[in-house]
Amino acid sequence: AAAFRRLVEAHEEAKRAARVREEQAHEQARIALVKKLAAERMSDKAWKDLLDRAHSAAERGDKDFLLLRFPSVLCSDGGRMINAPDPDWPKTLRGPAADIYEHWRDELKPAGFGLVARILEFPGGYPGDAGLTLTWGS
Questions:
Q1: DSSP per residue over 38-62, as a string?
Q2: 85: cis peptide before it, omega within 30°?
Q3: Cα dist. 104→11, 33, 107 in Å?
Q4: What's the pTM value of the predicted model, to 2 decimals?
């Protein structure tokens, strides 16, 4: 029986080790993604494409359009200011999210469009993905 118990313990330890390796690989992939996204810039064509898709949403009767979904860790504070909501949340944006905010502030806000930032999910109780939504409805 002792030999069987050792086999079970070895099996359980192998499962724990595999889970740790999987979590480490996931974390490394997340860090690489954040670095990549933080360094990206939104092209004028990509911005125009987003506006075209928002226009199509309005034609369908929608009053808003999710411009970008991104990991909240892309924010310098991990999305906490968006979740608060703190009026200075735009200062935490990096990469394409920051570009979208600047386009909205400079081009769309004066025309009456709104921009809403929110945390879209809370895996494990922590901010997960965030979203920037363009609004034009009442």
A1: HH----HHHHHHHHHHHHHHHHTT-
A2: yes
A3: 55, 24, 5
A4: 0.78
Q: Kindly state the tokens that stand for 78.
A: 């991990």
Say if CB 133 and CB 65 are below 8 A apart.
yes
- Categorise residue 100: left if φ over 0, alpha if ψ from -120 to 50, beta otherwise: alpha
Q: How far apart are CA 108 and CA 66, in angstroms?
A: 15
How would you write the pLDDT of the chain (138 residues) with one tens digit per residue?
999 999 999 999 999 999 999 999 988 888 888 888 888 899 999 999 999 999 999 999 999 999 999 999 889 999 999 999 899 999 999 999 999 999 999 999 999 999 999 999 999 898 999 999 999 987
